[in-house]
Amino acid sequence: xxxxxxxxxxxxxxxxxxxxxxxxxxxxxxxxxxxxxxxxxxxxxxxxxxxxxxxxxxxxxxxxxxxxxxxxxxxxxxxxxxxxxxxxxxxxxxxxxxxxxxxxxxxxxxxxxxxxxxxxxxxxxxxxxxxxxxxxxxxxxxxxxxxxxxxxxxxxxxxxxxxxxxxxxxxxxxxxxxxxxxxxxxxxxxxxxxxxxxxxxxxxxxxxxxxxxxxxxxxxxxxxxxxxxxxxxxxxxxxxxxxxxxxxxxxxxxxxxxxxxxxxxxxxxxxxxxxxxxxxxxxxxxxxxxxxxxxxxxxxxxxxxxxxxxxxxxxxxxxxxxxxxxxxxxxxxxxxxxxxxxxxxxxxxxxxxxxxx
Length: 357
What we know:
Layout: E1 5-6, H1 8-16, E2 29-30, H2 32-40, H3 51-55, H4 78-85, H5 88-106, E3 116-120, E4 126-128, E5 144-146, E6 152-154, H6 163-172, E7 178-182, H7 185-193, H8 203-208, E8 213-215, H9 223-233, E9 238-241, E10 245-250, H10 253-277, H11 286-298, H12 310-313, H13 339-356
Parallel strand pairs: 1-2, 8-9
Antiparallel strand pairs: 3-4, 3-7, 4-5, 5-6, 7-10, 9-10
């Protein structure tokens, strides 16, 4: 049976009737806007509550865009799939994909029809962006629904071929519920140069990205590319695809997109710093890096470096920046021989030539 979905209007009517969050039906699905109404609208004051309770502030919350589905309850028939695809909760997620596409395009992370987004919404269901459409001009009607093998289940526009790489990540890493692929200039420059970004330089990058991974080049959209990227993404939430671009994953599409911004900003900063000082960039200590890895754990993010030694954590020996601009040194003035030395050289030369004759 399809679960009840509450929109913002439904939630407003529900709260105005004197009910509270405790009265919500079991298993009800709330759209993001409905959650906002529950949190910020009429939620604090309801009929039958004491003045003291009504005046009590709501507990602070953190933004959460993760989609939660009930295992084993994926829609099966074409009619069920279509109803699910057009349900308010899924429409809200598709709108977020459209909005993030605009943000990617506005920041010049994508060019032409490049880049793509995916969100897992079931055991065997994934929303994805269409092929041959600019990410800055997508519409709700262009979003697609595929299964975990890439078979398109809904949507009149053809899904992106590169969703197979996203699916490979999701199959190998259960925490990856959304992926973002783009071609941000600085992150992609590191990928083209085959340079893995160094670590232990900016705390925010250590916390929200961890170590940035790399995968060897394979043809985009191919099974081989899905294999190498999927393997690299098991232990890295951001992967530079050599000669291709960047792919990031997270618990929701906002999280995955933020990591794309983190990668681009970090690579740009490291590049500029390298031009200022060459390879001798400042780093935090190994013990400080361990503190940041512990912070990642409290935020629900694993880190393969958790058991590394402090020396291993900040070892950037392989990071060798490229050209560094310096003022060229002036060439030394040519030596000038004194007259007596020149006279001696001439005498010896004449003697040698006479002997040869």
